[in-house]
Amino acid sequence: MADEKVSHANLFAALAAFQAEVPVVAKANSADVRTKTGGNYRYTYATLGDVARVVYPILGRHGLSFLCLIERDEAGLTLKGILAHETSQMQQAVFPVFGNTPQEIGSALTYGRRYLLGCLTGVVTDDDDDGQAAQNAHRATQGRPWAQSRPEPHPEPASPPQPPAGVDFDGLLARAALETSKSALRELWSEAGSAGAPRDVLDQITELAAHCETEPAPEPVSERSEWVDAETGEPVVAQ
Prior knowledge:
38% of the residues lie in helices and 20% in strands. It has 7 helices and 7 strands. It has a 3-stranded antiparallel β-sheet with strand order 3-4-5.
């Protein structure tokens, strides 16, 4: 019998059988649309109810079901459509929801449900008045994050690293330029690194050390010892 349930091994086998059986959905409604230039045109369409009355029984016969979930976060609203099979396999699609008023949002949800149903099952439908209202709402949406779709992220421009506040690296470089000892420059390099100096400051100190003379020789120790006589105050030299 045509109404008997048919089992299929997976979602795609069930969907293929559904698409082979589903009939053309009659478009019993019409709408007149006025254009911006003052003209108008008429089109016919099938409502969500018209489509559901034809499609849902056939989906169920092949172990398929369709549902929608509204999701909301700080960026806006979306409608998630799910086509599920009795084997727990499923396919999903997402539709953005626009609108400033409850009526606009409700219209967008109705249009989104029918749009997702067509996308996930392959049933073809024409635009209806809900689609037109949703399109108008999309153009009119301004300044309401809860009613807008998620904006595309824009990376923040990279800013050059700033030296830590209160550290005078120019003064530190001036001290380094006066040094003639590699060990003193090494100490300045460590000091700058601990203070969070930028790479170019450390490189300049390293360059100064590379051109620095070798460590100065220690002062020669005199062969004579010299001290002051405690009574006379005269220097006394010991041979």
